[in-house]
Amino acid sequence: MMNNLQRKQPPVFPVEKVIIPEAKSFRLNNATPVFMIEAGTEDIMRLEFVFRAGQVKEYLPLLASTCNMMLSEGSQNYSSEELNRSLDYYGIFLNQTCEKDCAGIVLFFLNKHIEKVLELSREILFRPVFPEAELTSLMKKRLRWYLVNREKVQNLAMDQFFESLFGKNHPYGYQISEQDFEKITPSFLSDFHSKYYTAKNMAVIISGKIHNKTAELLNSFIGNISLNETDKKTSVNLIKGEKLKKVHINKSETVQNAIRIGSATINKRHPDYPGLKILDSILGGYFGSRLMKNIREEKGYTYGISSSLSSLDLAGYKVISTEVGQNNCQKAIDEIYKEIKLLQNVTVNKEEMAVVRNYMSGEMVRMFDGPFALAESFRSAWEFGLDNSYYYRLADKIKSIDPDEIIELARTYYNIDDLYEITVGTI
Amino acid sequence: MKGIDIQHADESVNEVITDLQTGEITTGEMEKVKNKFESSTVFSNTSILNKAANLSFCELLGNPALINNEVDLYRNVSQGMVIEALEKYFIPTNCSTINYMSTRQEK
Questions:
Q1: CB atoms within 10 A of CB A118
Q2: Of A41, A91, A371, the CB nearest to B36
Q3: Alpha-carbon torsion (A97, A419, A301, A307), positive or negative
Q4: What is the reported pLDDT for B107?
Q5: Which of B8, B30, B12 is nearest to B82 (CA)?
Q6: Ordered strands of the A93-98 beta sheet
């Protein structure tokens, strides 16, 4: 039997060139920008409505996320139950998303249901009524999730990390308290909705084997939504990191301690970002990274350790995350700094560079596999005012970066005195 | 959830099963489930990675062409077939239940 499985290994081809299908863009009658990416073999579409309506716009903790979650809890023409039953009946997947900068909805559906999808989208996005009973029930559930999450060291650490980096008063940074769940009312939600869920504040991103009447249908359902003037008075709250670089939160009866080390940094708009992404991969961005090899495989302090680099509109941030046994907490922290210093002083050898280049090229190919991935990648560049040239620059950098440049980047962006160090658990 | 007896949760689940056994399955409900199946099957073929996995699974079952008519197979399921399956598989004595309880003191 085993002989049947012994096949010749297929040849391996390195990634040569990534070619990304371009989005076609046009505007609806009310000037809303629409981007269409034609891709895929199945008769399905992904339709995303994205608004500049994320947490950064909220004037009360939880307001942006609650507003987003309540969109499908009842509209002028349908109750919450009717809306959800309809989505269910047609096999439409609805994701409601609220992030730090943007919020909106994404729908996945079979092309034949496009009219129903657009009709329901219009109800959800532009005619929500925020019923009191549904709000009370949602807030009860959210409080429950919150209390469960706050028992976990990794969540306590991440919440504190954002507060330290972005400040107690900034929506990127402030932590939620139990009292915040009582403050949200239907009228706050309506007010937030009318300011930020407007045609002017919106873009539509479509991908898949796009239905030939899409533009026409979009115009008839969404194209006449009036262009409310977005509230211009909201001033941008400045980011100001907390002074204290090291914070320990004591939490007893936990199995492991959580560690978060990192700082605010450049975002995608900065020319050094692609290089920093590569540095981050070497340090802790993949399974064979320096941190994994040292702290997991050699020392056995943890099951997993990683670093990541993320982009927000007003800043980027990098963070090294791990959970370790209590006795190994300080030792793990020391090793993390040691790895950073190594990258600042010793040239990465050719073999390791080759592994990282291959890993990242493969990762890039996956970022454009299929219509859904394409739309997500498009969106995460578009959000920053960038286009596919950002990905071409990243691909070039992966191929061509010089080890000396890695040292330079590590010295510029990983200054150890600038890093915040958050620990949660028992020391 | 805090404050809800596990017994009550168990009974609620069984109630749904009994409802299904004693009640009627409407055409609308059948249509809904088939729509949902169609949509999730078609969706699972949108990335080359998933498509390859689905294809190899069908091949393992002995028929790679299955990937093209799986939706039709489900489209042809009748109410009678569902009831038959219910009677055959949903027998209380065949059911194992695990209650996974928190030991944490309620505050």
A1: 18
A2: A91
A3: positive
A4: 45
A5: B30
A6: A24-27, A33-38, A202-208, A44-51, A103-110, A93-98
ipTM of the complex: 0.70
pLDDT tens for A204-234 read 999 999 999 999 999 999 998 876 665 555 5
The whole domain housing A302 covers: 246-425
Torsions phi, psi for A289 (to 5 deg): -65, 170
Whether A161 and A250 map to the same domain: the answer is: no
CA A287 to chain centre: 20
Please name each of the domains of chain B with its CATH number.
6-94 (3.30.830.10)
In sequence order, the 6+-apart residues with CB closer than 8 A to the CB of A379 are: A48, A50, A205
Residue A141 lies in a domain: yes
| Residue A6 belongs to some domain of the structure | no
Structure tokens belonging to residue A177 = 């308290």
Which residues of B fall within a CB distance of 8 Å from A41?
45
First vs last C-alpha separation in chain A:
54
The whole-angstrom distance between residue A235's C-alpha and the CA centroid of its chain comes to: 24
Q: Which of A89, A366, A371 sits opposite B32 (nearest CB)?
A: A89
Identify the helix (H) or strand (E) that includes residue A132.
Answer: helix A132-149
Least confident residue range of A14-18, A19-23, A258-262, B28-32: A14-18
Tokens at residue A190, please?
Answer: 């309506």
The type of residue at A19 is: I
How far is it, in rounded angstroms, from Cα A230 to Cα A216? Answer: 26
| Angle value at C-alpha B104, between A248 and A322, nearest 5 degrees | 35
For residue range A190-200, what is the model confidence (pLDDT) as tens digits?
A: 999 999 999 88
Q: Among the three residues A188, A221, A254, which one is the final residue of a domain in this structure? A: A221
Measured between CB atoms, does A144 come within 8 Å of chain B?
Answer: yes
- For chain A, say whether B45 makes contact (Cβ under 8 Å): yes
Please state the separation of Cα A403 from the chain's center in Å: 29
Per-residue confidence (pLDDT) for residue A158, from 0 to 100: 97
pLDDT in tens, A346-377: 999 999 999 999 999 999 998 998 899 999 99
